[in-house]
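User: Working on a comparison across species. This one is Glycerate dehydrogenase from Brevibacillus borstelensis AK1. Can you predict its structure so I can line it up against the others?
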Amino acid sequence: MTKPLVFVPHRIAESALALLRERCEVDYRDIEEKLDDASFAAGLQRADGLMIYSRHKINASVLEKAPRLRVVSNIAVGYDNLDLPALTARGILATNTPDVLTETTADLTFALLMAAARRVPEADRFVKNGQWNEWLPSLMLGKDVHGATIGIVGMGRIGEAVARRAKGFDMNILYFNRSRKPEAEKALGVQFTSLDDLLSRSDYVVVMTPLTPETEGLIGERELALMKSDAILINTSRGCVVDEQALIRSLTERRIGGAGLDVFQMEPTPKDNPLLSLPHVVTLPHIGSATRETREKMALKAARNMLAGLFGERPENLLNPS
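Assistant: Here's the predicted structure for Glycerate dehydrogenase from Brevibacillus borstelensis AK1:
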């Protein structure tokens, strides 16, 4: 019996690669960089399965180059890079990797909040640039985190994990979500409220919602205007959930206190993006799940999803059951 062929156009954990090779032929490219379009299209020609990070956009035009494709396994919890209707129309299973990156991403989210609140990157540059000539009472004054109010926009798995960390800092926790989470309210003491109320009351607004047609531009000019003048916006979800130009205006005009961003509208973000030159903005290169342990777990979960789909089983993390 001919083994199915899985196309993996980038480096993954050796353990996940070994798992695939036990049952499949694997067209593997041991590179970190994104494969060029021509090579990617060539790899798709023979592929029964495709295992990718979310930087690869899979739409109808891409699928035309993949006549044998049966499974697309995303190594990410987000899947806005996948055109699910186009995949479903062709009978191609799509999967993602939730759960395994929850705690790691929550760690990074809270680290970003702390860094922005206490001006950690700015203070680091201040010392390394030789600007620290004397201690002053007003030097690098930041904002308290303990006892402050945090507003979490999107109370999914990662949102709940952020709430657990906020609870440890004795924060007042508000949340906005498509539906209420009574169990989370009971376990974590979080308070459900409207988006407008959350924005107006929070010292820290943390955006945790996935990118969908409904959430694109969710935080725009009007929403930013509702925030406190010293409030800090944290975004570790997807860049397009926040209107980036509106955010730039709010920060430049000091209408909000600052921001911590792991995601941007365009990634990598252009070097001339005004956000990169603002001292009260902490910027990271989309590293929410970037630990060795978690990336290996993600790759293993993606490999298991792939094998299930190729060998007639229902993948654990199927995105398009229809």
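For your comparison, note: The chain is about 35% helix and 15% strand.

User: Helpful, thanks.
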